[in-house]
Design goal:
By secondary structure, the protein is α/β, with parallel strands linked by helices. The chain has seven helices and six strands; from the N terminus they run E-H-H-E-H-E-H-H-E-H-H-E-E. The longest helix is centred in the N-terminal third of the chain and has 17 residues. The N and C termini lie far apart (34 Å).
Length: 190
């Protein structure tokens, strides 16, 4: 039976606004970030989408986003965390690697993760979630880099990357026979 995963990026944070690299370090949602989460909640309501289970990265920005989207109980999972950027955590985004091919191993030199490690971690975590028998409509709140690297494991991400991975964008996947397929990406506007 086909199942559906709604993989969502968190709302805008203080570090997003300050153009700082934000992986495993954390910063609070901005007022705009809170409004983005509420816009996502309204999207789900307008579409009549209900979840049977919800999951979040252990990062505060994801938990806070999820709590604005739904009041249902949820599980925090480290497997949904953002890329670890090592010594570049909280530094200026100008130090980040913008080339997806070079970025695969770029952060290793700073004690961080490779993007392939993140892809594999996300794939393993989301597969375990969706393999559970009673998980037919699942919300998982994660991060821009983590969502990108997961998508990279499913299909070529370049078309969606051109459109941008906005805060609170929602990647809608079908899950069937152990495989994810991207249905569409929703970008609710505030």
């Amino acid at each position: 039976m086909k199942k559906r995963l709604y993989l969502m990026r968190h709302g805008q944070t203080m570090f997003n606004e300050q153009k700082r690299i934000q992986g495993w370090c954390d910063s609070p949602l901005t007022e705009l970030g809170k409004r983005q989460a509420l816009a996502a909640a309204q999207y789900f309501k307008d579409q009549g989408i209900q979840f049977d289970h919800a999951y979040s990265s252990t990062s505060e920005r994801c938990c806070d986003t999820l709590e604005l989207v739904t009041d249902m109980p949820y599980t925090r999972l480290k497997g949904l965390k953002e890329v670890f950027y090592g010594q570049l955590e909280a530094e200026s985004e100008r130090l980040a690697c913008k080339d997806p091919e070079r970025a695969v191993t770029y952060y290793l030199q700073f004690g961080g993760e490779s993007t392939d490690q993140v892809r594999d971690r996300m794939t393993e975590t989301l597969t375990e979630i969706m393999e559970k028998g009673d998980h037919y409509s699942v919300l998982a709140v994660s991060h821009g880099g983590a969502c990108f690297n997961f998508l990279k494991g499913v299909q070529d991400p370049s078309e969606e990357l051109k459109k941008g991975f906005t805060n609170c964008c929602i990647f809608i996947y079908d899950y069937e026979d152990g495989k994810f397929s991207l249905v569409k990406v929703e970008r609710p506007e505030v």
